[in-house]
Amino acid sequence: MMRFNSKLCALCKGRKLLCGRPTCPILERFMAAQKVAKFVDRTDIFGSSPPSVFVGEFGYPRVKIGPLVPPVEGNTRHLDDPLRWEGRSVRDILYYRSLLVMGEMRADVDVRKSGRVLGEIQELAMSIKPVDSEVLLKRRPILKVLPSEFAPPLGPRAEMLRFELAENPKIPRKTDRVVEDELKASDAILRLYEWGFDEYYIVRLLSVGLLGLRPRLVPTRWSITAVQDTIGNFLRRKVLDYPEISHYELYFAEFLGNRYAVLLIPGRYSFELLEVWLKGSLFGSAEPEVLHDYENFRGIKGYAEETTGAYYAARLSVLEALDKRKRQAKILVFREITPAYYAPVGVWQIRVGIRKALENPVGRFETLNEALREVGRFLEHPLERYLAKSWLLKQRAQRRLDEFFGGARS
């Protein structure tokens, strides 16, 4: 959940920006909802689903699941396709998502206990093109909660009475093959990935219980991390067979109020994400702390407890780049979240932000100290605090860090 001070919000009412953010996330969400209110203020919604499906996590193993249908017909893919959102603002994305009405129903995660409606939702999820759909709701939909940091934000929703596809969805033959084959979920994910299907399509299939030997509904948030982790581990094993890079390489980009500095260090593969929510940012505090998670060549132990889903998204983007180059390296990613990121839009923006960084080289360096000094030029939070927390740099000779700090203070 977002951290809001209710007393401060009551005093501010979005006008004075007392929280220090450049815009009020509550009002932004409200304005996005107001723009589409006249289109979704009814119980019978007919339109072209992008296609889009959401599976919640609360109440597990009985979760809320439903199709997302806009009151718009035609090519609506941009409403639920993060790969098409580069260059769009947070406000644009909130508007897109507010157009998607979710018809909710409760379902057991064991798909064998579900009926015809789930079958229709599964067909929708398998489509690679928008599908004309109709959803009948018990009452007019309302916007209940603010967005999640993991999945793209949800629009208005209400309990669903009926859902029907108004046309046949376009389902690739390869998707049918994977769904019909008896494959472990991880094997199915990798087969689809190697065939060129994008990860968000794979996430949909996993979420609605179409992949695995014992198909089960998987909450969308969990599916995103599961797919990115599975593909990341696959690429990590490939990258370990490649030669190491020969120089220190630094890359940098800003995207949707996030700063990304990616430092590649010669050596055997390892990965670390260092993350700071700056003062005034969405989850920031008066004294921002450095969050981090890491892994060596064997992979991460357990779950990324501090940086959570951001870890798997960041790791996957860098591993894809290294796999394309046929090289391996130690990877240090710095992420700073500024007040300009006033509403979370999902971990897809981390995937895109780091890809943009890796397309924007800052330079190559002979020494770690030179590279770190350059990193400090792009970050607002003191570099010393990042380095003091870094597991990866602690693995290197302490003498080198002493030299760096000595040089930085002189």
From TrEMBL:
GO terms for biological process: DNA repair. PANTHER family: DNA REPAIR PROTEIN. Residues 18-283 form the Archaeal Nre N-terminal domain. Keywords: DNA damage, DNA repair. Pfam families: Nre_C, Nre_N. This is DNA repair protein. It comes from Pyrococcus yayanosii (strain CH1 / JCM 16557). InterPro entries: Nre, Nre_C, Nre_N.
